[in-house]
Structure formats: structure tokens, C-alpha cells
Amino acid sequence: MQIAGIQKLTLVDFPGHVAATVFTRGCSFRCGFCHNPELVLPERFNPLLSEKQIFEFLESRYGKLNGICITGGEPLMNRDADKFISHLKALGFDVKLDTNGSFPDMLEKIIKDGDVDYVAMDVKSPLSKYSVTAGIRNREHGTFDSSLRPSVPPSLESKIMRSIDLIRNSGIDYEFRTTISHPIHEPEDFEKMGEMIKGAKRYFLQNYKKSKRINEEIDYEPFTDEELEEAQKIMKKYVKDVGIR
Description:
The protein is α/β, with parallel strands linked by helices. It has one domain: Aldolase class I (TIM Barrel, Alpha-Beta Barrel). 30% of the residues lie in helices and 20% in strands. The protein has 8 helices and 8 strands, in the order ββααβαβαβααβαβαβ.
């Protein structure tokens, strides 16, 4: 595993758990608002930690931690992600996985192995805007052009929807979530995202917070309280439990 860091204690990342968070290096997306550029951009990478270091720390925290969050970057880029998760589970920890949904084959294997207890998937935008929102096309654009709607590669569309279906039907606990900001998201986007995850058990709107980000040239802005409430109202037509973070 390409492990870039560890947060030794979190009370908020894994619902109902006293946990540590492991950060993996590398991502298949380049979301401009991403606040972890050192995990995504090769020119910003920091030295890696070894799995041995991680396991030694966790073994020293027996009885104090009961959960491990694995986030990134995109953890499922690692070909040995399933083995790493199985090792954590064998050590006696519950495991939460964060993913962007672009590696459904690995996700399916991990779910079938039964070693993950909670999955959180980021739903970036409606499928028609994914290429722009996730920065996988038009990376040369220094500004976000809301009129730019390149066709989404069929492979990406199918991967995102397959991951949503895998999680929704997995039988394990989960959430979908979207980091929302101007100028990326528009009111009509929430109807389309609602259709994508219709029938899901839980969804969170995560309002953008100004901080370091991958694309410093775009002036991202958070939604107002009124806009958040309107987005929540729309999403509740599709998902029963809709929260705001």
C-alpha cells in the first residue's frame, strides 16, 4: 500500500468508533477543490510510511482504538488494498473505506471478502458533468466553465454506477456524499444525483470550506445556508436520511 500518513485519533471519521485514519497516496481524479493535493499530485508527494510502521502503531493501540478509516487520494488504486484491509480486520479493528467509485472490481472483492464494515463513496456530480468535476478531462482549463459538458467516457459512467449499486446492495453500512461548491454545482444537479442514488439509506451534503486545493485558479465558494437547505429538500425525495456537514 502507498501510505502517505496517519491521523492517530479521530472521533468523527468513522461513526460510532474511536478510530485512526490512514491516508493513501495517489488518485484517479483531479477534483479542483480537493484539499489534499499532497496525496494527489505527484509533484507534491511526501515520503511514504511502511505498512510495518502502521501495523506496529495499531498494535500499540489495542483497547484504545476500535476502528480504522482508509482514505486518500483513492485507496482502491492500490492492487493490494484488499490484503491490507484483511490484515486490519485480522488485527481486530472495524474498517471504514472511503472511495470515489472508480475501481468497482476491487470494491466488489473487498465487499465479498467481508472485511469492510462501512463504505463512504463520494458522488461528485451528475454523470454528465463528471469529467469536468473530477478533473479527468480538460485539466488544462484554469477556470471552471459551467457550460463545458464533455461526454463522459462510457467506462467511467458504468464504473460509477456499478460502485453505487454494489454499495447500495452490499448489506453493510454506508453513506454517499457530495462536496458542493460554486461554480461547480447548480440546483438542477441535485435532482440528477438523487436519481443516481435513489433508494440509498444515507447521503450527506458537505459544504465546501476554503482551504488549500488542487486548482488555485478557480474561485470556489461554499453554498449559503438557504442553498444547502434547498439541496437537502431535493435530495430527500430520493434518500430518506439526508444530512448537512
